[in-house]
Amino acid sequence: MMAPLLQVSNLEQRFDASGGFFERLRLRNGRITAPRRIVHAVNGVSLSIERGEVLGIVGESGCGKSTLAKTVIKLHEPTAGSILLDGEDITRHGFALMQPIRSKMQMIFQDPYASLNPRQRVRDIVMEPYLENAPGKVHDVQEKALALLAKVGLGPEHADRYPHQFSGGQRQRIGIARALSVEPKLIIADEPVSALDVSIQAQILNLMMDLKDEFGFSYLFITHDLSVVRHISDRIGVMYLGFMVETGPTEAIFESPKHPYTRALLAAAPVLGEPLAAAADEIKGEVPSALDLPSGCCFRTRCPLAFDRCTRERPVLRSQPGGQSVACHLHDATALATSTDTHP
Ligand code: SF4
To answer: Does ligand 1 lie within 6 Å of residue 258's CB atom?
Structure first.
């Protein structure tokens, strides 16, 4: 059996938030000892993506989904865990070793304007990854740039313009053309339509799906929008406080969400398209700080079903009937049958 295109295992991403060099020097010279402040942004996340598959990652703002995306594509070096792309372990690849890998894995960013060099013409922007990966192939650049622009619905008259001469939707089309230039196997899309007008979002999503069908690549698709994730994903992963709390086929999760957090999200956003940030207001309590994770289950401080074991023990993802995997003690049938804990 063929290995998945992307296999991520127990990925951890932590950042030191103790302050900069001068702050640490000031504290040391003043003989003030301050504890290190570590942000636990991604906590033991495992996932896999098959060839041609779309995995949507959904969760509230600040749940670690964008950090997960940037760690998978090695914009951040992972603290622990492993990343295998197309069977190759790239976890500890440095800049030079990552260079050929970048032709297999490209990223589309949330803010298409910030991700485009304002001083470059569009033809140069879209061909940049291609030339980085095949510096000798300069003879077909012009022709390839126009073909890529045509694929995303832009004409040859756009090739010599600069990013500021385009609308938000057109800029995102340019970002997509740039990602396509190296014929990647995986595109990591980080909130690619959330900065666009609602009327433009559907056009860009449809374009992205048409291109996927034509070229056969996979998406790791990060979004906070339930309607977007339902529309485009084959499978979904739900993140909370840097943990993956539920994964499964899209329709199974929407029809029968099992984790209390997933259920609360879906119940609080009955109108698809409502941002999760608003929906999450309906879930009682504050999201705990990633600087100080709760013991046991990451959701226990807000979970209406929490019981004794939830404080003591961190639940792991367990396979469930229907193809879902859930990190919740209520879905650990063996342990519940033998437990003396009181639980709902
Ligand atoms: Fe709630 Fe406990 Fe399940 Fe966590 S493990 S989601 S606290 S019931």
So the answer is: no
